[in-house]
Amino acid sequence: MTDLPPKRAAESATEMVQVVLPNDANPLGFILGGTVMHLIDIAAAIACHRHTRSRLVTAAVDDLQFLHPIRVGDLIILKARVTCTFTTSLEAQVDVYSEETLTGRRMMTSQAFLTFVAVSEDGGRVRVPPLLVDTDEERRVCEAAKARRAARLAKKITKAELRTSNFELRTSNFEV
Question: If pLDDT is split at 50, 70 and 90, which confidence band does 170 have?
């Protein structure tokens, strides 16, 4: 196995911009949360593809927050970048902004952290290139990603244990 060369977060940086149209909106004239989530997933996937140059699947979405609505006619701007890499997975941060088309006023409206797993053509996991972390800010962001990952994995174990105990509880009702 050859070592993969490390890459910087700047190499994965992605920016998407589109206008919010009426078919993207709810009856109040604001973009649908599901539409924002869809665009967040796309922006994060692009950043992760740029880092790995491999097939990817979305594994988790952490800390998605809707801070402010985006109106029909405004621009939605999504900025994504890789924040941390693991062996076969990596995390991307997506910051979402609205921009008023007539004034140019921007406001952060959402933020999310997504984890992707790199997969081969047959669905097996493949290694991802490490992330070069040079600055104190990059180290802080990567450490926060590691903490989110640890919490997510701990929660996953708890859910598996819960499913097992629920199964045992249900099947114990049928014991004779």
Answer: low
Q: How do 89-99 and 106-119 pair as beta strands?
A: antiparallel
Could you tell me how far CA 12 lies from the centroid of its own chain? 13
- Give CA separation, 3 vs 6, 10, 11, in Å: 9, 21, 18
Residue 75 pairs with which residues in a beta bridge? 19, 99
11-20 pLDDT, tens digit per residue, is 999 999 999 9
166 or 66: which leads in pLDDT:
66
Angle formed at CA 55 by CA 116 and CA 146, multiple of 5 degrees:
20
Phi, psi of 134 (to 5 degrees): -100, -35
Between CA 95 and CA 170 the distance in angstroms is 43
88 within 8 A of 128, measured Cβ to Cβ: yes
3-state DSSP: the chain helix, strand, coil percent, rounded to 5? 35, 35, 30
